[in-house]
Each structure stands twice: as structure tokens, then as C-alpha cells.
Write a sequence for this structure.
């Protein structure tokens, strides 16, 4: 009898082949907010996956059919959903999840955000970008001003906890990707 962890491994293989953003179980764990080694430990033990873990996985990968992952019945993927890779074609697009409301109402916490690698010298003021920092944190902001050594970024949300803007030294930024699409979470 096939275990839930075996089906999850099938899904990870599917992601590796089709979307390219998930290269291995470790990347999958990180994207879902699972502990490092969760997949390997579950595979060695009884192979069950808890409901909290399934909720985390579905938050990052809503295309996964919950009935299939839990019971093996039905198809691996939900039917009738178009995903960024289908809509945007061959563009090099990856998906991130918004972790806060700093860009509310444009991007809400829990939203899936499609980002595309763009040449750094082509940053466009007024566009939203995903900014990747060396500590592996990611945040989304409007780019307000671009200079040779720094950029000014601002949140959409005007609540005091998000500030009014931030000057970032380009050398301290790991990577910048332009936001090309947002799917808001309705959970």
C-alpha cells in the first residue's frame, strides 16, 4: 500500500520536472516551512503526514489535490486551475509566498507571487520587486528610485510598522526579481 509520504515524493518529482523551482526535497521543505529533513524522516518512519504539514504544503502548492495526498484517490493535481507556468509560457518565472502585509492591498499575506529574473540595470521605478537578502529573507516593495550604488524601496501599506521607505545598498542585496503576477489567497 502506498503511503502519503510516497505520494508526496511523487509530487516533488513532478515539481522538479515541470516547474524547475523545486530542485530537491530540501528546497521543497524550505518553501513549505517544514523542518530540515522532514521528508527523509517521514520516509524512514511510518510515512504519515500530519494535517498541519498538509496545510503548510497546500499553502505553498495549492494545485496539489488534498484527497490524493491523503488517500491516493483522484488525480495528483486539482483540475481546472491555470498556473503561472501555463499563463506565462517559457519565461523564467518562480513563485514566492507573501509573508506579511507590507504591500497590502496589492499583495496580501499568503498570496502567491510570480517573479521573473530581470537584468539589474533594468529596474523600473514604480514596479514591484521581490528583494532577496543574504539571510535568505524575501520582501516585496515598489522601487521608487534607482542610483548606481543604492535603491529606494517603499511599501504599499501606509501603516506605521512598515515605514515610509528604505534605502538599500545594492551590494547588500542578494538578488532582485520583478513581480509579474499575484494570486491572492482566499482561505
Amino acid at each position: 500500500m502506498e503511503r502519503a509520504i510516497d505520494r508526496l515524493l511523487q509530487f516533488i518529482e513532478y515539481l522538479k520536472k515541470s516547474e524547475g523551482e523545486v530542485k530537491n526535497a530540501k528546497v521543497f521543505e524550505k518553501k513549505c516551512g517544514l523542518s530540515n529533513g522532514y521528508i527523509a524522516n517521514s520516509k524512514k518512519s511510518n510515512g504519515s503526514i500530519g494535517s498541519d504539514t498538509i496545510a503548510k504544503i497546500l499553502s505553498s502548492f495549492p494545485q496539489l489535490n488534498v484527497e490524493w495526498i491523503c488517500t491516493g484517490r483522484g488525480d495528483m493535481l486539482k483540475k481546472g486551475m491555470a498556473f503561472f507556468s501555463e499563463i506565462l509560457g517559457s519565461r523564467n518565472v518562480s513563485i514566492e509566498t507573501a509573508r506579511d502585509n507590507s504591500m497590502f492591498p496589492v499583495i496580501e499575506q499568503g498570496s502567491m507571487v510570480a517573479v521573473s529574473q530581470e537584468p539589474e540595470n533594468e529596474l523600473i521605478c514604480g514596479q514591484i520587486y521581490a528583494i532577496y537578502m543574504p539571510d535568505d529573507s524575501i520582501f516585496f516593495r515598489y522601487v521608487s528610485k534607482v542610483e548606481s550604488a543604492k535603491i529606494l524601496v517603499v511599501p504599499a501599506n501606509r501603516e506605521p510598522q512598515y515605514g515610509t521607505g528604505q534605502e538599500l545598498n545594492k551590494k547588500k542585496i542578494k538578488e532582485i526579481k520583478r513581480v509579474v503576477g499575484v494570486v491572492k489567497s482566499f482561505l
Summary: Residues 4-18 form the longest helix (15 residues). The longest strand covers residues 138-146. The mean pLDDT is 85.
